[in-house]
Amino acid sequence: MMKHIFKQGEQGKPVFLLLHGTGGNERDLLPLAEMLDPSYSVLSVKGEVDENGMARYFRRLREGEYDLEDLKFRSQELYDFIEKSAKEYEFNLENLILVGFSNGANMAINLALRDEAPFKKALLFAPLYPLDLKDNHKDLTNFEVFLSMGEQDPIVTLEQSKRVIEIFKERGAKVHETWVNSHEITQEAVIKARNIL
Question: Rounded distance, CA 72 to CA 75, Å?
């Protein structure tokens, strides 16, 4: 069982899936969920990979280079866990909103691109997804995504941020983008993210 926190919100309201950044834990993004909408339920999951004492959702070979085998394995594991949680906590997978920061945002992109994933919305902060997706034909025409990216992000280049926008646009998603300074979650970005809820 993955380490997680579930917080029941108002009946029938959506559920935030919170995915933290490298070195974070399942408590990190709880204040973000409160700011976005305190009436929603929350499923916050801790990454199972240990990188020098820092929790992550999947292994990487080096900065910006993913261990693809591990990503595939961890993504399946997380997706299975989300499905089990939906049964256990009685929520509909279609009502789940992916909310991720940095490594968590990257994992959220992977989840959104899964063929079987029924998700309709994602709020992603400082995402990076430098993978070859020519074999991925996921139709995202019913998908809405908010992307907060850093103009001076020391980890994600402008080109890499634009690539994330492309990934969603190529598949027909409705994309809302906002630019902040660095690799961060700003209050201003959170207020903009709230608008698409």
Answer: 5
> Which is catalytic among the residues 44, 85, 153, 161?
153
Query: In terms of C-beta density within 10 A (0-12 exposed, 13-18 middle, 19 or more buried), how is residue 60 classed?
Result: middle
pLDDT at 118 over 90: yes
Query: Which domains, from first to last, does the chain contain?
Result: 4-194 (3.40.50.1820)
Catalytic residue among 41, 102, 148, 161: 102
Q: Is the pTM of the predicted complex or chain greater than 0.85?
A: yes
Active site residue 161: no
CA distance 3 to 172: 34
Q: List beta partners, residue 17.
A: 43, 98
Q: What is the dihedral of CA 65, 143, 7, 111, to 10 degrees?
A: -30
Is 41 catalytic? The answer is no
Q: Are 105 and 56 in contact (CB under 8 A)?
A: no
80 is catalytic: no
Separation CA 52–CA 19 (nearest Å): 19
Q: Tell me, what amino acid is at 47?
A: G
